[in-house]
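BUG: 3D viewer hangs when loading the predicted structure for this chain

Environment: internal workstation, default settings.
Expected: structure renders.
Actual: progress bar stalls at 90%.

Input used:
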Amino acid sequence: MCGIVGIVGKSNVNLALYDSLTVLQHRGQDAAGIMTSDKGKLNLRKDNGLVRDVFHTRHMKQLTGNMGIGHVRYPTAGSSGPAQAQPLYVNSPYGISIAHNGNLTNSEDLSKDIYRDDLRHLNTDSDSEVLLNVFAHELQVLNKIKPTADDVFTAVSRVHKRCSGAYAAIAMLVGYGIVGFRDKYGIRPLVFGRKRVRKGYEYMLASESVALDSQGFTLVRDVAPGEAIYIDQDGNYEARMCSDDSKPTPCIFEHVYFARPDSMIDGVSVYKSRLRMGEKLAGKIMRERPDHDIDVVIPIPDTSRTAAVELANALGVKFREGFVKNRYIGRTFIMPGQSQRKKSVRQKLNAIPLEFQDKNVLLVDDSIVRGTTCKQIIEMARDAGARRVYFASASPPVKYPNVYGIDMPAVSELIAHGKTVDEVQKQIGADWLVYQDLEDLVASCAEGSILPMDFECSVFNGVYVTRDVSEKYLAKLEARRNDAAKKRKERDTGDFGQSEEEEGQLALHSNG
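Structure tokens produced before the viewer hung:
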């Protein structure tokens, strides 16, 4: 999972890009990059690290130009390093750079086609570089000295015909303009906004609406699945549907976990959707245990807090903050091996005994992936004096791997895969475990949507909307993602990854 932004302004856009990336930092902490276009020349700064560490005053002074794109990135186990930081660039035709969020499911076949048929060279194993070269090739074959908006839209249409999977992308044509586009399912988010200035309008494309808010831009709308929006360097824009079979199917995990609660996605408030998750989960608890003995509801920081507040309110039970978070310890999910993850949970969270002593406690989290974190937290609650410890997940059991941009563990390491709820409950050590029902989660995220839509829910139901995910593909994914493979990579390369600042149970995907 990554964060992307693009701006066409009336003056230098470097500071606005920088500030936007800091707002999108939750979407990726491994690397950051900004590329600007100034009078037909490119300026680039990218490196591994957080936004605040990658860019210093000397870099910002060099990033001149009224047009630019930016990216924050998180890697998979085998794909890290400055070479894979984005934006990525090819010099032909025109000079094109790209910032990409998502994952192509046919990148292996495309890589062969790019070398054999398009006569292009790939320098990394990043599917973002594959996407960039496909787009560049489709522009090049049009053989135009100066690309028009029609040419850009034609190239995007051909990208949709060749590429499968999830991609929200912003590409910059040096000296001409930027184009933002989503795959025909709209799996990954992309929004469009504008701001009135003295000389006219400035325009922004970004992963989440909070980036627009932070820079004073007004959210115009989401880029529709299969649509492209082109903004030339003078601030003129056009939009066109570039796919004739688009079907809105956004990733539901954006609402569960990834997106900030103050974002709007496809017309839906993420905050409101999480409130509804808590309300519906409370309804299930009342159906299954109308005579429950819950004394207090406590969230596991941070993303579950909104759902936990509404759950407690609907149950008529006290809501309390029972854990204090050390914000200088990274995310446990990406640590190299189980023992390191277990140690980190204790370093990251500390219980407040006053809120647990002699109480029946309901802990609430956004999801359960491996089960490592929640098992330790349940033990912490008992150590703090809880009489009974119940556990609620705001989402259904995570049973299947994600192939559209979330670097989840191998399927064999997903605690709910092949297990009943009772078996998971026993393994994590809870006195009772309740999961959100999938239909309730979908209803929570669909209410208020401006378009009728389904959701990409493959991690819960194993249904992959692109219909090209085979058992062979999943087997390769399993081999790449399991702990043993990660340990081999760490031993061979010495790369033990970077930590995140935000709490959660999911790592973020490499290439986008």
